[in-house]
Amino acid sequence: MMLAEMKDISIDFPGVKALDRVNFSTATGSVHALIGANGAGKSTLMKVLSGAYGHYTGEILLDGTKVSIRSPRDADDFGIQTVYQEVDTALIPYLTVGENILLKHDRTFINWKKLHRKANEILKDMNIHLSSKKLVKDLTLAEKQMVLIARAVSTECRFLILDEPTAPLSHTETRELFRIVNDLKSRDVGIIFISHRLPEIFEICDQITIMRNGRLVSKDYISKICQNEVIERMLGEKLEEQFPERNLDIGETLYEVRGLADSGKVQDITLTARAGEIIGIAGLVGAGKTELCKTLFGSAKITAGEVWLHGKKLRLRSPHEAVKEGIALVPEERRREGILVEESVSANLSAASLGQFTKAFGFLNEKAENEKAWGIVKNLGIKTPGLETKTKNLSGGNQQKIAIGKWLLTDAEVYIFDEPTKGVDVGAKKDIFKLISALAKRGKAVIYASSELSEVIGITNRLYVLYDGQVVKELQTDRTNEEEILFYSTGGEISGTIKKYPNTAKNIRPF
Amino acid sequence: MELSKNTQTQQRTFDLFDFLYKYGTILTILILIAVFAASNPAFIQGSNVINILRSISIVTIIAIGITISLSVNGFDLSVGSVASLSNAIVISMFVWFSQNTVIAIISALAASLIVGLLNSFMIVKMKIPDMLMTLATMFIIQGIALTYTKGATISQNMVMPDGTFSEGIISQTFKKIGQVPWIIVIMVIAVVLVHIFLTYTKHGRYMYVIGGNIEAAKLSGIPVNKYKILAYVLSAIFASIGGIVLASRVMTAEINAGSPYLMDSVAAAFIGFSVLGSGKPNAIGTFVGAVLIGILQNGLVMMSVPYYSMDIVKGTVLAFALGLTYYKQKH
């Protein structure tokens, strides 16, 4: 067993003290959860340990010996490996799985046979069914993650940092990941597991360290703490009911989709949404939720079917037209699709409604723009030093509020949310739920797509279960539960072997 | 989080690199002026300053077009050829077809409009990467310009294929375009207009948004393709204006006259990224970049550096400026 200790780690960024004298320690052969709200500093702490940030103060000890980790290379030498949340940043898409796994084993000449043999051995060893000759660009997100873990394992890996590994994974993929994590643990690798999903942490971790606002809150054995305690410590306040009350004042049918299909996954989608109603699109990862959302927004080509809004048939050939018709989409990939990381908060908030803030000849009225932007910032509780701050300097939750906030200025009729709580901490989640529910109360139709079943159950009035690009079931939310949704979203009814889901269990509301 | 409190802990110490990033280009210009003036006082005389401004105006005008294409994260390599083509068309209209100034200029602009539309169609609809597509158009347009002039220089009183002398003359009004003060005025107007367009209008904001993150721009309902088309069309039009001004200045249409301006313009636009720390393509920065190149060229001539060694210095300065921009982006 080997002990890694971080002592009195502090780090500053322009404008933010990200870590303030944090102590952290973990040992090999165990899974250690690191948890905290967004902006708590857990990712930063791990970036210090993995050498991504070299300008910290404090010291790092391995087995009691002081070591200097100032660059990823140093961390590498000490056997500290990281798999970041954004897997694509660490992979070379047009190279094969094998080359990606053995990326760091550079010899002058490549022996292709040997390379693939070795890569296959590693994959086989970890029980990953993947050909080492496949190109990485053709892999699913989960498979890419496996490749990264395989790469980490291919070195002398003693500590493996997993930064929100399960966020993009489906249920089965998560199970597969846990199997690998347990396997690594038994081989005396120390795993540091960053996650927002408490049930998972309680399932797989041995110890838990909680952080808040760049400081250490507590370190415990997982057996000595319960979920609510964890949340209280993360938030620093008592936990209340997470989901706002459902809007019961539901009006006429506002939005109707009939037989919609795109050129890819989405087939024969029929759904309706009434004014003031939140409808859920539930389904596992890969069921086509994102594709459906994009098709509804005109971003993917519609090959069949009709979309009606306010009794008017819409032509949706581009997002531009969708926005003009009053449809808004908050996309899943926030940093890539939702916000402009290099632009200021106000430029982001006005991006979808800039026409409102122009004078003759398209000249910008920055005063009006800033006023409106400030209104949104205050209204949504976006934590930012100012309107001119670049959004890349804000935390994930605040970025998401901006991605949503920009649509509040457009006054759309239909709001589509695609996994809006992905990578968002508990506190910001609650704000986002409140916001969505407020939209419904204002008579908007809301479409809420998520693979987090607890959320779909918590916030929607009615839901559609998506399986392989098709709606397989429509359910009334207050008359269903997670098991039933899971049953349909795993293709339960389609397979034909099982009959109807026995509707016995009562509605379970997770924390 | 207590961000308001945290902002006060912001580093107040003097960051040399940050300073260099913001003011490096301007500082370099000042140092160059000081060095050149010290070695030859004639360098800072009014007439030489005018001379420098005149010499950079064509580069600046073409670079302004490149700046617009860069703002949508595009790149237009065909500007040099477009300038050559415009040069040839405008002179031929006078010399071969005895047309008046307005028609000559409009013909040149119309030709560039077609090139711009062709570029944007192939880039936006056929999804050909911009650098490759405009590389192709660069050759095509260069070839068209050469074919059009039959590989010869067009000038007044030139010998026509049938052995007679051409009769058309270049109008006096047109001649004025390439002379001080008009050549400088045209440059300043181009810089100011594009600066206002990019900084103070919705359209400029959209272009930067598209350049920053095209996916997010699309999903914000911005008509991305429309703005990309606009960017390439404007780029071609500014290149064409550059070619017209060039025509007026030399009063002939030499073969491939516009090509040498491509690299200088690209350099000016890229140097412009770092001016005052904007970090993105901008009109004022591009102008400063052009000034830097102009001063360098002028000063080196005055210091009797041979023309064939000039590119060494120019390239070095470009590398330095790019270093400032990209080193900063990494940190």
Automatic annotation (TrEMBL), chain B:
It is found in: Cell membrane. Keywords: Cell inner membrane, Cell membrane, Membrane, Transmembrane, Transmembrane helix, Transport. One of its GO terms (molecular function) is transmembrane transporter activity. It is a multi-pass membrane protein. Pfam families: BPD_transp_2. The chain crosses the membrane at residues 20-39, 51-70, 77-97, 103-124, 131-149, 180-200, 229-251, 257-276, 283-301. It comes from the Bacteria. This is Sugar ABC transporter permease. It comes from Peribacillus deserti. The lineage of its organism: Bacteria, Bacillati, Bacillota, Bacilli, Bacillales.
